[in-house]
Amino acid sequence: MMRIGEILGKMRELRLWAVPVVDDHHRLIGILSYRDILMRGAGRDTKVLTVMEPPYSVKSGTSLTETIARTVSWKARIVPVVDEKRRLLAIVTRRDILKCMLDYGIVPDAVAEDAMSSPPITIHQDESIARARWTMLKSGVSRLPVVDDDEKIVGVITLRDIVERLYNIRLTRRKGFEWIRSEEEFLAAPVRDFMSSPPIYTHRRATLREVVETLLHYQISGMPITERERVVGVISGLDVMKKYLEGLVQIRPLEAKVAEVLAKDPISKIQVEKLVNDYISSLSRMVNVIDVKLSIKEESKVEKEEGRKRYRVRIKLATDIGTFVAEGRGWELLTALRDALQVLEKRVKKEVGKRTLYLPPREEGAP
């Protein structure tokens, strides 16, 4: 029942991207993140209960390897640790995991180029903060390398930078400091005015051990990879964990494969697979995802839009609490797909929400 304004200062102090939410009995009932706050447009007086996402957790005693696998599968910033009655005992952050990997000598023997995400998503220094926010939320990333007219890196801006600045403006204006710029002025301002500069970055041939040491030293979650000052990729602690899991004989995180309709369009195929797999990661925090089937069909015979392709997307998700189906239609494939995924997510959340506050803890191995 706390309010968003009471939480942000502590999150900033502890450099946490997300925090667990508990009830009066200290039982885990949700997760609150910067992304949730920004996407919901929550004000400082908004109660946490109305913004939080359904909870996910591991039991005390879960192995490090299993915790890494869960973190990668869920794309989690934090992993709450609970007891048999779902009472919160601790949290494990990505920083905690990376430090353990260093201490135990299990950082993969590879270089940054082997684990980076590419091609990178960047933003020009003259584009607006609003554009940066929209790009991060749309693409499912939390930081953007900032480039100049020559495509050379000049800074980095993060989702946390934007959220903290927005709420600082709201708080200061409420205290009567009228000289503080408005939210509208801030969102219209160019990225260069608020980016972190000079940026922290690394190069293609840096070892993953060097990457981890840099992330921990500067307390950042990820950084650009450059070649001759131009961004060629981005690497995060999660990418290092993924590389570690590749060398193990175990179940890989479930990923959807796209229909053959996109076989001749590799760019759209990459965009669709990323969007679908981001949603799978989010949903797997709430339920055990058993299988996902994605169908994409072209509806070319449409009278009003002769010559254009209209897409019909159908998604079937099998989970441990039931099967969910959703459809979407549209002239733009990603729009139709996102509509279907949002409907699917809403249905799963509704079902999980019925169980979270009133049912006993899940069995071992369930979120």
Secondary-structure element string: HEEHEHEEHHEHEEHHEHEEHHEEEH
Overall geometry comes to: globular
The residue fraction in helices comes out at 25-40%
CATH superfamily of the largest domain: CBS-domain
Structure description:
- The structure is a single chain.
- With 367 residues, this protein is of the alpha/beta class.
- The chain has 3 domains: 4-93, CBS-domain (Roll), CATH 3.10.580; 112-246, CBS-domain, CATH 3.10.580.10; 260-356, 2-Layer Sandwich (Double Stranded RNA Binding Domain).
- The chain is 38% helix and 22% strand.
- The chain contains 12 helices and 14 strands.
- It is globular.
- The relative contact order is 0.11.
- The model is unreliable at 173-180, 250-254 and 358-367 (pLDDT under 50).
Key features?
367 residues, alpha/beta, CBS-domain, Double Stranded RNA Binding Domain, three-stranded mixed sheet, 12 helices, 38% helix, globular, disordered C terminus
SSE layout and pairings?
Layout: H1 4-14, E1 18-22, E2 28-33, H2 34-40, E3 58-59, H3 64-74, E4 78-82, E5 88-93, H4 94-103, H5 112-115, E6 123-124, H6 129-139, E7 143-147, E8 153-158, H7 159-174, H8 183-188, E9 202-203, H9 208-218, E10 222-227, E11 230-236, H10 237-246, H11 266-284, E12 289-299, E13 310-319, E14 322-330, H12 333-356
Parallel strand pairs: 3-4, 6-7, 9-10
Antiparallel strand pairs: 1-2, 4-5, 7-8, 10-11, 12-13, 13-14
Helix pairs in contact: 3-10, 4-9, 11-12
